[in-house]
Amino acid sequence: MENVRVGVIGVGNMGSKYAQLIANGRIAGLRLEAVTRVRPEYREKLQGALDAGLRVYESADALFAAVESGELELDAVVVATPHYAHEEQAVRAFQNDLHVLCDKPAGVYSRQARRIEEALAGREKKLVYSMVFNQRTNPVYRRMKEIVESGKYGSIKRVSWVVTDWYRPDVYYTSSSWRATWDKDGGGTLLNQCPHNLDLLQWICGVPARVQGFCREGKYHPIPVEDEVTAYLEWADGATGIFIASTGEAAGVNRFEISLEDALLVCEGGELRVCEVAGALGMREEAFRRTSADPFPKIRGEWHTEECGREEEPYRVILQSFSDAILHRGDPVAWGEEGRYSLYLSNAIYLSSWNRETVELPVPGSEEELRFEEAFEQGLKRKIRQYS
Ligand SMILES: NC(=O)c1ccc[n+]([C@@H]2O[C@H](COP(=O)([O-])OP(=O)(O)OC[C@H]3O[C@@H](n4cnc5c(N)ncnc54)[C@H](O)[C@@H]3O)[C@@H](O)[C@H]2O)c1
After folding, report:
1. Do 322 and 373 belong together in one domain?
2. Which of 19, 52, 241, 261 is the Cys-Cys partner for 8 at CB 3.0 to 4.6 Å?
3. 132 lines ligand 1 (CB under 6 A)
């Protein structure tokens, strides 16, 4: 295959960006073949391609029907529709032997992510399933992951991510009718803005074992879903953490700290600062803690800023890695299967908040996973009933 023929499903805010990048020849190996209905405010971006005869289908159904009838030949789709639709569209794409790049999150609840994976596993053809976790292309987060995984400073003691710079005024919530609803969006900031952070959290630090969540619905905006979240996290090896997010704080911050055995990593303002302690102590921190004769030592570590490099255009990198994975068997920025973990996290935080209890995250393929899915979906149904 020389070029991957792509259809973009859901041409709003994000889909129009992806379609434009492909239509403008910015992604080697991808050719834009079709889109679904283009929202009027995004038409201009695609005017050249539309004038040149780009095929436009009324809906995802119509696009897949054209593929199934042989009227439209595609190799891949990009799914950029509201969250509930991702499962159905990704599954139908796999049933038609199409590669899938799905925008985050993989769905509203983890069962949807599991069903997408099952549809993929059932195909004979080797298909690429990738997720748009574009923040993984940020060199600062990549460097954090490298440092943690290198083990250079020991294992994780504690994690803290305060991400309150997702500020949104009320107009954001009225800009698309599906936003900030339980029945169409599936949640608030946890599901809409935070999948990126939750993905990075599990990508860099591993999947937590249990969480306790506190979600405040409509605290800053007239919406029935949460616009503030506080979660306490615990990992199986004893590491602990907090995750705080808000769309109603100004000024907000985005400060991600990882405390390791012998260093503190602080990611803020696009910079990664590292404070090393072993050099200053003359020994590893644990040895110092065990042996110090001074009951009140002031530990001054040695700070430096990591050289992380410049960030390239994230969406271009995502699309290019998808193309390369199909054409040259490379690794995409994020494999689709990894989308399940951020959903475990968001689903568990909701469930914990609704039921006021600690929630254990399930292991994929376990009996607990089925119980977890069931419990979350029951809770979600209650929310939908409450607000419809
Ligand atoms: N990766 C990122 O940085 C990022 C940023 C924002 C949003 N997103 C995600 O992108 C997805 C879309 O969000 P958005 O902000 O572009 O929303 P949007 O409302 O601007 O666009 C969604 C589009 O999907 C269309 N659509 C809905 N159902 C459809 C169907 N059955 N068939 C065809 N088209 C259909 C709508 O008409 C609309 O044009 C969501 O999953 C969202 O979470 C990702």
Report:
1. no
2. 19
3. yes
The residue written with tokens 């897949």 in the block is: 64
Whole-number pLDDT of residue 388 = 83
- pLDDT at res. 1: 76
Distance 37 CA to ligand 1 centre (A): 12
Q: Does ligand 1 have an atom closer than 6 angstroms to the CB of 59?
A: yes
196 in the same domain as 144: yes
φ and ψ at 353, to 5 degrees? -70, -45
The reply to whether 370 and 244 lie within a common domain is yes
Which CATH number is 72's domain given?
3.40.50.720
For residue 80, the CA-to-ligand 1 centroid distance in Å is 4
Identify the pLDDT of residue 268: 98
What is the Cβ-side half-sphere exposure of residue 56, based on CA atoms within 13 angstroms? 16
Q: Give the chain's domain count.
A: 2
Measured between alpha carbons, how far apart are the two ends of the chain, in Å? 48
Give the type of residue at 370: L
198 and 323 fall within a common domain: no
| Contact predicate 115/43, CB 8 Å | no
Cβ–ligand 1 distance for 199 under 6 Å, the answer: no
Contact 50, 38 (CB under 8 A): yes
Does the CB atom of residue 8 touch ligand 1 within 6 A?
no
- 147, HSE (Cβ side, Cα atoms, 13 Å): 28
Q: What is the CATH number of the domain that holds 151?
A: 3.30.360.10
The DSSP code for 335 is B
Same domain, 291 and 331: no
User: Which pLDDT value is given to residue 46?
Assistant: 96
Q: Is the CB of 92 under 6 A from ligand 1?
A: no
In the predicted model, residues of the chain with pLDDT beneath 70 are none
Q: How far apart are CA 258 and CA 41, in angstroms?
A: 41
Report how far ligand 1's centroid is from the alpha carbon of 355 (Å). 30
Q: Supply the range of the domain harboring residue 143.
A: 138-307+342-386
C-alpha 12 – ligand 1 centre gap (Å): 6
